Amino acid sequence: MALLEVKHIYKSFGGVKAIQDFSIEANAGEIHGIIGPNGAGKTTIFNTISGVYTPDQGTVILDGQDITKLEQHKITRLGMGRTFQNIRLFKGLTVEENVMCAFDPQSQYGIIGGLLPTPKRRAEEKRGRELCEKYLEIVGMKDYLRERPENLSYGMQRRIEIARALMCEPKILLLDEPAAGLNPTEVGELTELIQRISREIGFGILLIEHRLELVMSISHKIHVQNFGETIAVGTPEEVQHNPQVIEAYLGKEE
Amino acid sequence: MNALISNVLTQVCITLIAVAGIYVLTGLTGMFSLGQAAFMAIGAYASGILVIRTHIPFFLAALIAVVMATGIGYLIGYPVVRLRRDYISLVTLGFGEAIAALLNRMTTLTGGASGLTGIPRKVTLTMALVSAIIAIALAAFFKTSKYGRQCIALKGDELAAKAMGIHVTRIKMVAFLLSVALTSYSGVLYAFYMSYVDPTGFGWKKSADWVIMVFFGGVNSLTGSTLGAFILSALPQVLRSMQNYRYVIYAILVLIILNFKPSGLLGEWELTPRHIRETVARVRNKFGAKKEG
Question: Are residues A46 and A149 in the same domain?
Fold first, then answer.
């Protein structure tokens, strides 16, 4: 059984069929690319898998557990981490505090510790800060702990968002257009980072991306979406030569 | 100490406790309550009635009143933390006005419009001051805890907060109940300081006053909120001799600050133990240098 099993999910908004019969199986260590033109329903797939929406039909199974109808925060706690297309870091918090927020729901102290500096609270905060440093070091942002994310570059914010997702201790990591808005050097660094965390931490990665050079170079398998439907699945070479894919991307030859 | 100054300071301390509660609610989670003063009323009336009717000790009555208010807070909070922000203000406003109306109607228990009289005077300036310091310290510890961080996170982006595993309704509820507990305790102190309470002082205007104080000082700063509450609650008392003009001055001051510094007097700045240590060290250095010189 695969780590993540998405079986025949459907999602519509009014008359718009955003997802029609999408299925995917992902295991630890694999990177799955999801590509397709704008409006193909890629982000909706992520939102449905991670619990922002409940699918109209179909099931989502994470590590043997049916998570289809669970609340978003519960799905995260079961091992689903994600980043957002338009970076969504928390305003009013430092880089360290942003990453800590993903540790806090797992933190083991109660309301007494919330009001007084109990030994338990200190121990847990210390454990959290150590994990924070660990993950920020992995993404190369350890020197920016006390900075406010809004004062940092776009590429740096992307890295912080990835560190924050890693803090959720995901089994499956959803990356929604991580290269959007990055310059070519940053895209190169990001490609290297995604491959490194996939290898070292060993979770399954689902990757939505428009930059074909990135997605083609690191994905094991690619799903091509168009108007809510999956039009091709296969290795990067296979989909690149698929006539339907070429048509969706470049238009039909007259 | 001059009796007038002592009176003003005691009332300011009581307001500081309520405003610490408002900071936890509005400052940290971004929820606007226009019914918080009702919890002050519940604290004041419950403790007052208990002591008058049953003659239990003041501290026990205070504890029961705060627990009771927090229990009512849970019932109100259950729908409130699930609502969109603008509806939260409406629901709490309705709740607050309903409590005020209830206090007016339940004449045999509350004394109705003529108020509850004969509450023994137990609260001194020292007690109010110590209570205010403890309340502010609790709010400060709360802000820097995992709860405070999660509150600030969900205030900024609820969807992202959920995606990080934050149980949004639960965290909002914790903040709401802490706010209710602090506000109701300020009500207990108020009743046992004034020795008389009537329903007129606990309407939405009071709640709105507290929200203004928080925004005046800085909604993102506990230090700012405290300073704002201190200035704005002392001001009308200090300017008492100027009669009606004092409210004009109050209004102008608030408008000036919110117009030219929308984030409030202090913005996000917080007084931390580190600042205090550094200031002490600086003063000591200066003093030491003078001695040597």
Answer: no
